[in-house]
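User:
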Amino acid sequence: MMQNVHLAPETDEDDLYSGYNDYNPTYDTEELENDTAFQQAVRTSHGRRPPITAKIPSTAVTRPVATGYGSKTSLASSMGRPMTGAIQDGVTRPMTAVRAAGFTKAALRGSAFDPLGQSRGPAPPLEAKNEDSPEEKIRQLEKKVNELVEESCIANSCGDLKLALEKAKDAGRKERVLVRQREQVTTPENINLDLTYSVLFNLASQYSANEMYAEALNTYQVIVKNKMFSNAGRLKVNMGNIYLKQRNYSKAIKFYRMALDQIPSVHKEMRIKIMQNIGVTFIKTGQYSDAINSFEHIMSMAPNLKAGFNLILSYFAVGDRDKMKKAFQKLIAVPLEIDEDDKYISPSDDPHTNLVIEAIKNDHLRQMERERKAMAEKYIMTAAKLIAPVIETSFAVGYDWCVEVVKASQYVELANDLEINKAITYLRQKDFNQAVETLKMFEKKDSRVKSAAATNLSFLYYLENEFAQASSYADLAVNSDRYNPSALTNKGNTVFANGDYEKAAEFYKEALRNDSSCTEALYNIGLTYKKLNRLDEALDCFLKLHAILRNSAQVLFQIANVYELMEDPNQAIEWLMQLISVVPTDSRALSKLGELYDSEGDKSQAFQYYYESYRYFPSNIEVIEWLGAYYIDTQFCEKAIQYFERASLIQPTQVKWQLMVASCFRRSGNYQKALDTYKDIHRKFPENVECLRFLVRLCTDIGLKEVQEYATKLKRLEKMKEIREQRIKSGRDSSGGSRSRREGSAGSGVRTKTNGDP
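Assistant: Predicted structure:
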């Protein structure tokens, strides 16, 4: 190849291309392995220095050209272009294209093409990281702070608020240490503001969650006042929320408005939520006109269910009937933005489609849609029940207007529920006839509504002790919807009232199979087992119910009663103690505790609970009698007098209470008062023998002249009593004799018949 290359002859004249053979040693790649500085740069960060500028400016080349100390080897062009310096058509072409700055005339001698440097072997290992360096310590500390913030958030989500706060405080302490270390090593501009913001924000949130509102407000103030934090003004919403919890409504409104001013109009959703908070705060302060302005603005810009409901409440508070109607119509018109139920019904037998529909039928999105729909129905029903009695002349007309509006909306199925609520309102007003008439209108409606109406009718007739009608409507409710637990429970109640406890238990069990959370059925089946004397099963039912209704006084009393029937007074006392912790003023529970302690022989504890029962309900004769007897037994007869006097007021026709009062006076030594009491009793009950006996005895002891008069009356009464007893005895004897004669004749007849047999 070289025989076609002719070098230009060297002359003493000025060469146009002179100087191009001189090159900068920087471009000498063959000696890089022996270059100490270059190898040091590869192993360490020494090579991050700025590049050294070449002394001779290079000319840009569009294709790589190899350089070296030796002669140059001309390479054939891949495009078929004649090589530089080659002879073409007898003319020597000047070597201009290969004599660029930094390249020699000589070509490479024996060097292979190795752009990646693979022939040099593996790179030397990197130097070990120095963990004691300040930069590394800062990096590790920053990592630890981030971990603490994450742990704090996780603890909060798990409900461990105290641990979350401790982690947040620890993160704050370590973050301050980190800032100080950074200031010593680097400039203040290199401080991680995002980490500082997240640490402070998390600490303020944990303070608020632990109801340490003063500390939370101070932490939020630190964030808000720091101008280096962008968008920190939004946290004034959180400060407003804290003031709202503290019922400092004026400051809450102030901070909400400050936050609203600092949020740009492009963040429409955030501004709407803040305005909703402002409206709610105005309602709490009673400033209904300002609240109406806030909610009206929200309903015009971005209508939602909460704002619509609060607007109705505000108009209800100011008594504006027309505006209540308009606000109700706006609430009805709020779009739900959820899919129809038809979407979840398979239109074909395609197995793939069926699998997809089955997968999304109860996923999180579907559950959220159900919750949103249930919330909308709750708001609409509550608003209708609120405004129906006031928007028209009567609540019935108001309900009819609400029903018509609902029928014309997307909530058509709520119209029937409103009608049933109308009947319930009649019940609250004690207008049973109107309630029954309203409910009977549903007998020709669809099965679900018919079942609900029949269930209510059955319950009404059951309360009026018309068990036949109650049973009839209970059957109608069950036939309309066999899976209605309320209908099955009512049917069980009617059977229970007729004494068929086994069949009642079956209905209650079926109700529980349809709805395991039907507490009424579970309670009633416990009562049924008590009637059947299946106490263990009854106890199981009530204990299950107690796990669902932790503070139900009725359930606690039933458990205690079952233990009492099982002759376990200690357990009964324990459950009754739980009962009075829930309802400490229940006189019946207190008297039952006193009775149990009395049966155990603990008179002092029995007296304590009987006395508490008397204090809350001083008309229980059994409690009064026990307290009076207790004071007599303990020789405090004068204290027993007040209890027996109260008993005589409650039962004035019962002579025994007045006799007990007189007896207490006599035992305490107040004979004159006892005599006067006995005389008063004798005037009211002149035929009472016991009163006359005590009068005779007292008059004899005191030496009064009336003793003869009372003795005569006593003899006459005793004689009359004896004659009366003889007559009763003779009457019994005569009736017994006639009965024996009848039995004897019947017996002789039987015997005759028997003797006549062969």
